Amino acid sequence: MAKHPKPEEIVAKLRQADVLISQGQSVADAIRALGVSSVTYYRWRCEFGGLKSDQVRRMKDLETENTRLRKAIADLTLDRPRGRRAQQSAGSADKVATLTLWAPVAAGADEGARGSILGKPAGRIGAGHPFDVNA
Fold first, then answer.
1. Across the chain, how many H-helices and E-strands are there?
2. What are the structural domain ranges in the chain?
3. Cβ(7)–Cβ(60) under 8 Å?
4. What mean pLDDT do residues 8-28 have?
5. CA dist., res. 25 & res. 131, Å (int)
């Protein structure tokens, strides 16, 4: 199993690479001198670049505390009884409204035989309605 360096060690290696690069070595030679891959170097540079050892230590402590607090909140959220609103919406899920589609009109059937939408009878547009074509 590979050894995972501590954040302080990573910062020290990044500083060592900076020194080697400032002395005129290429980035590839500096990475080789550190004994890590270029992917690892650039990942470290992205995560820890420009930080000091004490800042890295503080950042890791905060990440650990953040993880602990997120777990505590998740546990409290699961343990808490559901509110009245959530219980009402869960109960109404059992009463799902059914949608009645338009039935095909048989030859000679009147408009009332078409069916209904949402339980409302299909009716005609009355006289005086803006969409009345017979007016």
1. 5, 2
2. 7-79
3. yes
4. 91
5. 83
Sign of CA dihedral 77, 81, 83, 87: positive
Q: What is the mean pLDDT of residues 68-78?
A: 89
* Confidence bin at 99 (pLDDT 50/70/90): very low
Q: For the residues of 73-122, what is the DSSP string, one character each?
A: HHHHHHHSPPPHHHHHHHHHTTSPPP-PPPPPPPTT--GGGG-EETTEEP
- CA distance linking residue 30 with residue 85, whole number of Å: 61
Strand 116-117, strand 120-121: pairing: antiparallel
CA distance 52 to 64: 18
CB atoms within 10 A of CB 47: 13
Write the CA distances from 85 to 76, 90, 92, 94, integer angstroms: 19, 9, 11, 15
> Across all residues in the chain, what is the average pLDDT?
74
- Sequence letter at residue 21: I
Q: Is residue 114 a contact partner of residue 102, using CB atoms and an 8 Å limit?
A: yes
